[in-house]
Write a structure and sequence with these properties.
Elements (H helix, E strand, L loop, with lengths): L9 E3 L6 E4 L5 E5 L2 H7 L4 E7 L3 E5 L2 E6 L7 E6 L5 E6 H4 L6 E5 L13 E3 L23 H4 L2 H8 L9 H9 L5
Parallel strand pairs: 3-10
Antiparallel strand pairs: 1-2, 2-5, 3-4, 4-9, 6-7, 7-8, 8-9
Bound molecules: zinc ion.
Zinc ion binds next to loops.
Length: about 180
């Protein structure tokens, strides 16, 4: 992923009421094959670009938030255009560890230049639709993964700044607290 080229990407919903901008390159891009993501997208898998929530700027439009349950029990908040109901991003409460809206999983298909953000990793491939094309290039995991195995050093630095200093170091945080985050 080219950080400089992928800062400032814009996107929006299907009816055009909601427009937003990503103020930095994503932390990582997931292709998630879990059954929840299949149902939500109607596709083989979701493609989600993870960004700090304060780096996702709403340019216009009205959003609504919908709570969905997840297998982990922590739940997911899906953010949609209030008019056309297109899902533009979501939050996984287990990933935020009770700190609310700190990392958004932006639906890459809503970006104007979605082709700029190919998946860095395929996850939950244990649920993969066997008729889906074989994932290309990116590593794949049957469930989730340890962040340092996939994320760049810069992304690890960015995520470490989001969690309270009372947490142990990032390495411990990623292993002990984040690996089970999704779905
Ligand atoms: Zn809309």
């Amino acid at each position: 992923m080219n950080a400089a080229e992928n800062s400032g990407l814009t996107g929006g919903c299907a009816c055009g009421a909601v427009r937003f901008r990503l103020e930095a390159a994503p932390l990582v891009v997931h292709a998630c094959h879990c059954k929840n993501c299949q149902r939500q997208t109607g596709a083989w898998h979701a493609v989600n670009a993870l960004l700090e929530s304060h780096l996702v700027t709403l340019l216009r439009g009205e959003l609504v938030h919908q709570h969905l349950s997840t297998p982990s029990g922590a739940g997911q908040s899906v953010t949609r255009c209030a008019l056309c109901q297109t899902a533009v991003w979501s939050n996984y409460h287990s990933f935020s560890r009770g700190h609310g809206d700190i990392v958004r999983f932006v639906r890459v298909g809503t970006l104007d230049e979605a082709w700029r953000l190919p998946p860095d990793v395929h996850i939950y491939t244990a649920d993969r639709n066997s008729s889906a094309p074989e994932p290309v290039a990116a590593p794949r995991y049957e469930a989730f993964y340890d962040l340092p195995e996939v994320w760049t050093q810069e992304s690890l630095r960015r995520i470490s700044m989001l969690y309270p200093p009372t947490l142990p170091g990032l390495h411990a945080a990623t292993h002990a607290n984040l690996t089970e985050h999704h779905p």
